[in-house]
Amino acid sequence: FLRVKDIQNGRVIYRRRKTGKIYNIGLTEKASKLIAHFTDLKTADPEAFVLPIIPPGLKDLEAKIKQSRETYRHCNKALKRIARLCQIDKPISTYYARYSWANIARVYFGTNS
């Protein structure tokens, strides 16, 4: 999960847990504004989460994982509802939404990550 300490000088810098690869990604103006809407990077605890996906009171890792799964489940239900309304008969989930966003970013913004 993205933490305040992962954002430095207008960039997101983090190590991917799955591969260990370090990513250093510049923030667009829109992304910076979105982050600022949720978190004041200058005054927030460096360990705090940037986006309000996990409530700040959860310290226990298992509680964080449970909350994360519940959030994914809620998002997936909403995506399926949207797909039905749009008459899309293919399976839709956060996995596909994330994959689609990565492809859009690659094509339109010329990024490989």
In short, what is this structure?
The protein is mainly alpha-helical and 113 residues long.
Task: Note the main attributes of this structure.
45% helix; 2 domains; 113 residues; three-stranded antiparallel β-sheet
Note the gap between the termini: 17 Å
Oligomer: single chain
Radius of gyration: 16 Å
Task: Provide the domain count.
Answer: 2
Q: Would you write up a description of this structure?
A:
The structure is a single chain. The protein has helices at residues 29-38, 61-85, 94-109; strands at residues 7-8, 11-15, 22-26. It is globular. A 3-stranded antiparallel β-sheet has the order 1-2-3, with no helix packed on it. The chain has 2 domains: 1-52, no CATH class; 54-113, no CATH class. It is 45% helix and 11% strand. The protein is built from 3 helices and 3 strands.
Question: Which helices and strands occur, and which strands form pairs?
Answer:
Blueprint: E1 7-8, E2 11-15, E3 22-26, H1 29-38, H2 61-85, H3 94-109
Antiparallel strand pairs: 1-2, 2-3
